[in-house]
Design a protein that fits this description.
Helices cover 44% and strands 22% of the residues. Helix 6 runs antiparallel to helix 17, helix 26 crosses helix 32 and helix 27 crosses helix 31. The chain is elongated. The strands form six sheets. Strands 20-19-18-23-22-21 form a six-stranded antiparallel beta sheet. The chain has a five-stranded antiparallel beta sheet with strand order 4-1-7-6-5, with helices on both faces.
């Protein structure tokens, strides 16, 4: 191939590649723009969600509650920046659903799982694991909002897949479904009410849904079809009737649903062996939201009356008996509205005999204006008369009206001759009072349930308590049956003074002055509170003890509001004078009072909690000691004013920051020292200082260190484990303790010097016994140590034994140093020295009972000692010890009246008289002391 041809083809190929590259760049740019638009659309979608969206990595796990903390279940061995929580994306609905803002979640990553109700957390954990396997079925659970309220939410999962169909991540949308949950429960309650009302109707009655399925029906309906409830439930007319009849009924049902009113017609039903003409009445049924939910209907047989339409003239004799026994009224009138014939039911309704009716125009005898002498002729026609309309339209017309205390459905059927002229009317009267009462009851129950639901919703709104009660009273007075005088009051019991206070009302100013506060037991409302039962009166009577001139006439319903049989308030509804007592009304009011009780109790609990929180806050902030609370991780959540004064950090500087800021730096490494170490040992359950006081070193903001005393308490909340510490600055106390110790040491030295001086004075008086008190003191202390006595008791014995003979200072020297045996009077003087010593020492404030020990050191346990002859445990232990040491030292050493007897002789004396003269435990200790090598220092 020529070279120029090759170059040309290469050039063409290069141009082709260049165009392809440009096209590729354009495609990439388009894809980038499309991706950006999709991203923006996704972000807008997330922001528009009335809830919040979340996303999680595939290897994240859901934290399960385990004791006082959260643990990660089967967590993969890898670090996720210290947290296993998923990365979340939040729309503005997030705060509306949970009460927490996005910043709350960023501060506390595990918050999304900790708000799940404790009872639902294991279930949610399993569901989250199912999502990881690709299961995207929605599920429902409960959460606890930031304000503490309980809400139902629905989690709709969204699973992300890779090209190989493996799950790469998952997320979802969480929405609040509390309203639908409440609605479902209300719907169930409403269905139960409607079912009980339908069951009370004598004729076959039913409730169809909008698809034509029979969902509720009474026993008469089952009897008519000859089937059980199970066989009928969910069936349609096409399954129960012939196709032609079912189609006809379905057309009528369609008209009722489209028109929204009541439809009355006659139908020929052929069911099994039953063939007859039936009068059927249908109306739409609405659920608690007002939405059309189906058709409610009733029908009854009118075959005999239908047959009379086919007979010209009056009722024949053969059919008279049948017509008279029909449960409906049948009347035959001519075109001049003259009654040609009527059955017994018409006579019962009108109160007129058959002969009083026949031949008379209806408006002259039984019309609503029959007795009005100001009207004549057809001016007396009833307002509900439809005969004129029947003639004009040539069709039967149905109307309903009151007849005395009955509610009547009147069907007028015209009859025409061959020229189209009206020749007669057949009128069928049905007493539909039970049906209308049942219908009214359904409406009443719906209104009641609706009001209770609204009151409940008001109780959940974040508005003041008084506003909640005011709205509740307005709703109560809006119930048509209870509108009465549209006046009422909600009283609250004041436990402090046993009165009722009108919390909300629509009283006049004059009535408010009178009834603003009512003593329990006074007037109608006070009596209701006192008795705990409903009080009714139809007028102002003797029970109405509070009144004023010109008070409008009225009656009362006073309903006690009770919680656990305790009256906490009274709901008062005012009645028109002469109103008859109605237990149905009372039942409604009792139900409402129970709802109000829940609101009041809950509000009181909230107020008590708020008061306690405020009280606690005041106590914490006014405390002289620093009060600090931290999380299990050591982050500060509470910091009082005293802590600021002590450490120098403000509340804003400490909240959310680690408590290690208050520790000297040498304790911070690995969080093993200071307060963090204490928190960790408490968290593990191995702490030895929980509830105790420890001393540590603290660090101020300026870096200076100082001694602190810390008491730790542990507490658990919904968000985890916390620790609260009370910290005291020990600088001043330690300085005071040091000064006190120095003062005590000076005092001890001074006391020791005084004792030495006293001892020297005695020994100067009696040189022959010089050193006696010192040697007794040495032996007495050795015995005390052998007996295991404490340091304080040993010191007491040392002081007392060093001066135990101080009373001898008043004994004449010639008696003390007399070489021979003393006379009785001389020995009597010697025996006075314990009392003299006591008198000398009793005025000195020793920290031990020195004077008493000196007084008793010659007492013997058998009562032969002096000066008081005490026995056994009556003698101080210290005195019993000094007594033994005194005897041993005196016998072992030289005396003016005899040479030394020696230690062995002395020990024989005390061992031989142990348990007689001397305390045996002291004797045993003394013997052991000498066995261990004790000797007197001369």
């Amino acid at each position: 191939m020529p070279e120029d041809v090759v170059l040309l083809k290469l050039k063409e190929k290069a141009e082709e590649l260049k165009r392809a590259n440009l096209a590729l760049r354009g495609d990439v740019k388009n894809l980038e723009e499309k991706s950006k638009r999709l991203q923006n659309r996704y972000e807008k979608l997330v922001l528009a969600i009335n809830g919040y969206a979340y996303s999680m990595e595939v290897d994240c796990r859901f934290p399960i509650a385990d004791g006082d903390k959260f643990r990660d279940n089967d967590v993969l061995e890898r670090e996720l920046n210290g947290s296993m929580s998923p990365k979340m994306t939040y729309g503005p609905g997030c705060e509306a659903v949970t009460g927490y803002t996005s910043s709350d979640y960023s501060i506390e990553p595990d918050l999304w799982s900790s708000i799940i109700h404790d009872d639902d957390r294991p279930w949610v954990s399993k569901r989250m694991e199912y999502i990881r396997t690709g299961n995207d079925e929605p599920f429902e659970y409960r959460i606890v909002r930031k304000d503490g309220s309980l809400r139902w939410v629905k989690n709709t999962p969204l699973v992300d897949y890779a090209a190989d169909s493996t799950v790469t991540g998952y997320g979802g949308i969480v929405t609040d479904i509390t309203g639908s949950k409440i609605f479902l429960e209300q719907s169930r309650n409403e269905s139960a009410v409607v079912g009980s009302v339908i069951e009370g109707i004598d004729y076959p009655a039913y409730l169809k849904d909008t698809e034509g399925r029979y969902v509720l029906f009474n026993s008469a309906f089952c009897t008519f079809f000859g089937k059980t409830r199970e066989e009928l439930r969910g069936k349609t007319d096409m399954e129960l009737l012939s196709p032609e009849l079912a189609k006809s009924i379905m057309e009528v049902d369609g008209q009722v649903l489209a028109g929204g009113g009541t439809y009355v017609c006659t139908e020929t039903l052929n069911v099994g062996n039953t063939v007859g003409v039936f009068m059927a009445s249908r109306g739409i049924y609405r659920d608690i939201t007002g939405k059309v939910a189906g058709i409610i209907g009733v029908f009854h047989e009118i075959s005999a009356s239908k047959q009379t339409q086919e007979r010209p003239g009056v009722f024949g004799i053969q059919t008279k008996t049948v017509v008279d026994n029909l449960p409906i009224g049948v009347a035959y009138l001519d075109n001049d509205y003259r009654i040609l014939d009527a059955n017994r039911f018409v006579s019962e309704i009108t109160g007129l005999k058959h002969e009083e009716l026949v031949g008379k125009r209806c408006y002259d005898k039984i019309g609503e204006f029959a007795n009005d002498e100001t009207l004549v002729g057809m001016d007396k026609l009833c307002s509900c008369c439809t005969k004129d309309r029947c003639e004009k339209e040539g069709i039967p017309v149905v109307t309903e009206c009151f007849w005395g205390d009955r509610y009547i459905r009147l069907t007028t059927i015209p009859e025409f001759d061959e020229n189209g002229n009206t020749v007669s009317f057949l009128e069928i009267m049905e007493d539909i009072t039970p049906f209308r009462k049942a219908e009214a009851k359904i409406v009443e129950q719906y209104q009641l349930q609706d009001i209770i639901n609204k009151i409940f919703q008001v109780s959940l709104e974040p508005i003041p308590f008084e506003e909640q009660l005011k709205e509740a009273l307005r709703l109560i007075l809006s119930i048509p049956r209870l509108s009465l005088l549209a006046s009422g009051c909600i009283f609250i019991v004041n436990d402090d003074d046993n009165t009722l206070s009108a919390k909300v009302h629509n009283f006049s100013s004059q009535q408010l002055i009178l009834c603003g506060t009512v003593a329990i037991g006074t007037c109608v409302c006070g009596v209701a509170a006192q008795r705990g039962e409903i009080i009714f009166n139809d007028r102002i009577d003797e029970m109405h003890t509070l009144s004023y001139d010109g008070m409008p006439p009225h009656g009362h319903y006073a309903i006690p509001i009770k919680y656990n049989d305790l009256v906490i308030g009274v709901l008062t509804i005012y009645l028109r004078e002469g109103h008859k007592r109605d237990y149905g009304e009372e039942s409604i009011l009792k139900t409402i009072a129970n709802t109000l009780a829940g609101i009041i109790v809950r509000k009181r609990a909230e107020e008590i909690l708020t008061e306690k929180e405020e009280h606690l806050r005041c106590v914490v902030q006014t405390a002289k000691s620093a009060i600090i609370s931290v999380t299990g991780e050591g982050k500060t959540v509470l910091w009082n004013n005293a802590a600021t004064s002590m450490f120098g950090y403000t509340t804003m500087e400490m909240i959310g920051n680690p408590i290690t800021m208050l520790m000297p730096e040498r304790y911070r490494d690995a969080h093993t020292g200071g307060l963090m170490r204490i928190a960790e040992t408490i968290e593990s359950g191995n702490s030895a200082i929980l509830g105790k006081t420890v001393e540590l070193q603290g660090r101020r903001k300026d870096g200076t260190e100082f001694p602190i005393e810390l008491s730790i308490a542990r507490w658990t909340a919904r968000k985890g484990t916390f620790f609260t510490g009370i910290v005291r600055d020990m600088t001043r106390r330690n300085r005071g303790i040091l000064e006190l110790q120095q003062s005590l040491e000076k005092l001890r030295k001074l006391t020791g010097g005084i004792i030495q001086a006293m001892s020297a004075a005695v020994e100067a008086k009696d040189p022959y016994t010089a050193g006696h008190q010192r040697r007794v003191s040495d032996l007495a202390r050795a015995i005390a140590h052998e007996m295991g006595l404490g340091d304080t008791q040993v010191e007491c014995i040392r002081v007392a034994s060093s001066i135990h003979d101080i009373g001898k200072i008043y004994v004449p020297a010639e008696i003390l140093s007399k070489p021979g045996k003393l006379r009785d009077n001389e020995f009597s003087i010697i025996k006075d020295h314990p009392q003299i010593g006591y008198d000398i020492l009793k005025g000195i404030e020793f920290p031990y009972p020195v004077a008493g020990i000196v007084l008793q050191h010659h007492e013997k346990i058998n009562g032969t000692g002096y000066p008081m002859g005490l026995r056994g445990q009556e003698i101080l232990l210290e005195a019993r010890i000094i007594c033994v040491a005194d005897v041993v030292e005196a016998m072992a050493n030289h005396r003016p009246y005899r040479p030394a007897l020696g230690t062995d002789k002395a020990l024989e004396e005390i061992s031989g008289n142990g348990g007689i003269l001397y305390d045996p435990s002291v004797v045993d200790a003394c013997l052991k002391v000498f066995e261990k090598g004790f000797t007197f220092q001369m």
